[in-house]
Design a protein that fits this description.
This protein is α+β, with helices and mostly antiparallel strands. It has two domains: about 180 residues, 2',3'-cyclic nucleotide 3'-phosphodiesterase fold, CATH 3.90.1740; about 100 residues, HIV Type 1 Reverse Transcriptase, Chain A, domain 1 (Roll), CATH 3.10.10. The protein has eight helices and eleven strands. The N terminus is likely disordered. This is Reverse transcriptase/retrotransposon-derived protein RNase H-like domain-containing protein.
Length: about 325
């Protein structure tokens, strides 16, 4: 049996704004900008309905649509604990939504991948019928547009709004934002249809062995009738010893209950060994819950495959 690290779906790497003061300032600037008289009238006349983004405020650096880009994952795995900075330059409002343009340092630009044609930004709001993934190209389009002739501009306090193409540019004082690199799974939990549980269904459910039902979120299930998996070690191959990279405090605290549950179930056993492979706690969609992910590729090199390994190319 070949052990490997698996992904459940698309993964996004982003620089999340971690400073509460910075997040509050961004929100206040956005609230003030959309209430500028000319901007408000333009939104109303074009029937543009904006809704604030539900995800944490962040700047995306890479969207891995397959979740299988292990080369990028390896390249940035030591970057998660580092504190970084972004600087805001302007707020842009268009038919797709609103986003705060940010300027990246050289070190942050090294994290960018496949973002050609997309202006780095923090998504603030999305228009009805559009998605946040459209905002990067919206900023690029509006930045390349010229200011139309006429009076279409407004200044209020520290904000100055002017027309740009089919949208608006709102200049505001520069702000330094503190952020950290994070890895976030984007697999959405799809709602399931409620089964029609009639008498016959209830009878059939009673026939299912109780061992198949999960008792809690971290229950792995232990069907005693299953045949144990036998793993054979290759001869002459050194045992895996990969150092654990630094983890953020919230990742350590988030994964602690999962590890404790797996230990209580006997799935993992505390021991001392020369072998080690790193773990990467991944926050589940919706926050507050974490998933245990372990990089087992070093283990794959040491064990004999029970079956031929068939390549699994990513979908086009």
């Amino acid at each position: 049996m070949t052990l490997m690290m698996t992904e459940l779906g698309p993964v996004v790497y982003w620089l999340r704004i971690v400073s509460q003061e910075g997040r509050d300032k961004l929100t206040r600037d956005w609230e003030s900008a959309k209430r500028l008289r000319d901007v408000e009238e333009w939104l109303r006349s074009n029937d543009i309905e904006l809704k604030e983004v539900e995800l944490p405020l962040h700047c995306t650096v890479y969207y891995d649509k397959t979740g299988q880009d292990f080369d990028y994952s390896d390249r940035v795995h030591e970057e998660y604990a580092a504190t970084r900075t972004l600087m805001t330059t302007a707020l842009w409002i268009g038919k797709e939504g609103a986003a705060m343009e940010v300027e990246l340092t050289a070190k942050e630009r090294e994290l960018m991948k496949h973002r050609e044609g997309l202006t780095p930004h923090v998504s603030m709001a999305v228009s009805k019928g559009h998605s946040a993934r459209e905002l990067g190209r919206m900023l690029t389009r509006l930045r390349c547009a010229s200011e139309p002739p006429g009076r279409d501009s407004e200044t209020q306090s520290t904000l100055h709004a002017s027309r740009r193409g089919d949208g608006w540019k709102v200049r505001l004082p520069d702000q330094i934002l503190t952020c950290m690199l994070e890895r976030h799974e984007m697999n959405s939990e799809r709602p399931c249809r409620q089964a029609n549980r009639g008498t016959r269904m209830e009878e059939r459910l009673q026939e299912v062995p109780v061992e198949l039902w999960t008792r809690h979120p971290n229950d792995v299930g232990r069907v005693l009738a299953a045949t144990p998996v036998s793993i054979q070690i290759k001869e002459g191959i050194p045992l895996p010893r990969v150092a654990q990279y630094p983890l953020r405090k919230e990742a350590i605290e988030g994964i602690a209950p999962v590890i404790a549950s797996l230990r209580d179930q006997g799935v993992i056993i505390p021991t001392k060994s020369q072998c080690n492979t790193p773990i990467l706690p991944v926050e589940k969609p919706g926050g507050n819950k974490w998933r245990f992910v372990q990089d087992l590729r070093a283990v794959n090199k040491c064990v004999k495959a029970s079956f031929p390994v068939v390549p699994h190319p990513p979908p086009p």
